[in-house]
Amino acid sequence: MYIAAKKATAEASSSSSRYNTGNSSTNDGNSSKKSSSSSSRERESSSNSSREQQQQQQQQRTREQQQQQQQQREQQQQQQQQREQQQQEQQQREQQQQQQQREQQQQQQQLWRRQHVKQEKLRV
Prior knowledge:
By secondary structure, the protein is mainly alpha-helical. It has a domain at about 40-85. It is built from one helix and no strands. It has one helix at about 1-124.
């Protein structure tokens, strides 16, 4: 009787050990699934974060390029305006010079006429 009780106790203990081991294994499996799922979510979150960062960087580069292009256009416009202004000033100077030359010629012609008239009068 004692042997049978001891044998039954040993079997129960062995069964309990197998059950606990099985449960432990199942728990490990569940834990592994949870860990894998959590790791997958972390990878997805990291991937999303990386994509957002890339988009932000691309948007920043695009803004910088647009600003540079705008600055270049404005600079070109200013240069064009300066060239046009310089041309206008040059034309004005040339016109003034021409006007001065015409006035000088007129004065010289008038002077020559007066002198010529004087000489004619003196002759007579």
